[in-house]
Amino acid sequence: MSETFDVEFVERDERSARVVVRGLTPAFANGVRRAMVADVPTFSIDTVRFVENSSVMFDEMIGLRLGLVPLTTPLEDFSIGDEVTLALDVTGPATAYSGDIESSDQMVGAADDNIPIIELKENQRLELEADAVLDRGKEHAKHQGGVSVGYRHLQHVEVVGDADGADDGEPDVLRGVIETEDDELIASSEFDHDLTNRYPEKELAVEDVPGAFVFHVETDGSFSVEELLVHAVDSIEERAGELETKVAV
Q: For the chain, what is the domain count?
């Protein structure tokens, strides 16, 4: 693809961000959203081999819980279908946490250490081995690293005059990010999502900015928001290249 995009982070922390992307069509923006959910692969526990389980929970229930533990996923170092072996061995009285999971590869492990798996009573033990597989969200929801992905148009706000007072005090709710007359990007959370807080007693014109979209992205900790976004676009480019090749034949 030859298109270029302008990307700017408005809010960002370890696992979530609001990102303004310019130069997109609505269809492509939705394609990026879908790719972040379905196409970017993550490691997830797929097969569990129990050595000992004297807890009150069935093997199958523990296996389901393990499958929902997010695992760090260095995408540059692995390919679809690769496996990493994990192990867990905890004896009660104690609670088995995700942080107790040991990995055969230091790059792949629990993204959170404090996810409870099971509480073990006196003399109860849980010992197991598991295989984590790298796969895509479109194959199973447990492989979705983008746990919350949404987008909306960037909206430009311009002061066009003073309010006539008829709607004085009535909230003007807007969520996401606004672009001011000075081309400044401001998250709506800064004025409690109410434009009347930022522009008291002003008449405003609010318009969608053509080709500009605000993405709100949260990951499960498998990788960063930046990695999720970049690999989503890469996956679209890869599929577009495959289509172009097949059409040209």
A: 2
Q: Write out pLDDT tens, residues 152-173.
A: 999 999 998 887 765 555 677 7
Q: Are 239 and 26 in contact (CB under 8 A)?
A: no
Angle at 146 between CA 140 and CA 149, to 5 degrees: 120
Tell if the pTM clears 0.90, that is, is over it. no
pLDDT at 99: 96
237: helix, coil or strand? helix
User: Based on the domain organization, do 52 and 132 belong to the same domain?
Assistant: yes
User: For residue 103, what is the domain's CATH number?
Assistant: 2.170.120.12
Mean pLDDT to the nearest integer, 76-97: 96
Q: Are residues 33 and 48 in the same domain?
A: no
What the block records as the tokens of 7 is 């990307």
Q: What would the two tokens of residue 220 be?
A: 């499960």
Q: Residue 58: which residues within 8 A CB-CB, separation 6 or more?
A: none
Which tokens in the block code for residue 214? Answer: 């605000």
For residue 114, give its domain range. Answer: 42-139
User: Which amino acid makes up residue 70?
Assistant: P
Q: Which domain-ending residue is among 85, 110, 139?
A: 139
Q: Is residue 208 part of a domain?
A: yes
What confidence tens digit (pLDDT) does each residue in 35-52 have? 999 999 999 999 999 999
Rounded Cα–Cα distance for residues 44 and 31 (Å): 24
